[in-house]
Design brief:
Helices cover about 30% and strands about 30% of the residues. The chain has a domain of about 70 residues. The protein is built from three helices and six strands; from the N terminus they run βββββαβαα. The chain is α+β, with helices and mostly antiparallel strands. The longest helix is centred in the last third of the chain and has 13 residues. It binds zinc ion. Zinc ion (ZN) binds next to loops.
């Protein structure tokens, strides 16, 4: 099985399997952060992943998710929906 070599802040060099790691990709998908739980001290940790690390982790089958820094909030959606309802001609909003 593929092992991923990294370092733990407490234990030094450690080896992880793809199951131990999850990858958070920034929008665009080239860089991000990866999270893992150290198999020795069980300390959860997070490290930045540059483009090279991202490609290595993806190649080993690490699960990933894309993190959107400023997601649209429910409040914004409600405000938009309310604006649509109060607008007799919604298409006018799109025309700006
Ligand atoms: Zn450790």
């Amino acid at each position: 099985m593929t092992t991923i070599k990294t370092t733990c802040a407490r234990c030094g060099d450690i080896h992880l399997t793809p199951d131990d790691v999850s990858l958070e990709l920034h929008p665009g998908g080239r860089e991000g952060d990866y999270r893992f739980r150290c198999p020795r001290c069980t300390e959860p940790q997070r490290r930045p992943a540059n483009a090279r690390v991202v490609s290595v982790l993806l190649a080993t089958g690490v699960p990933f998710e894309v993190i959107i820094p400023n997601p649209i909030t429910d409040r914004e959606i409600e405000a938009f929906a309310a604006a649509l309802e109060s607008e007799p001609d919604p298409l006018r909003l799109l025309a700006g």
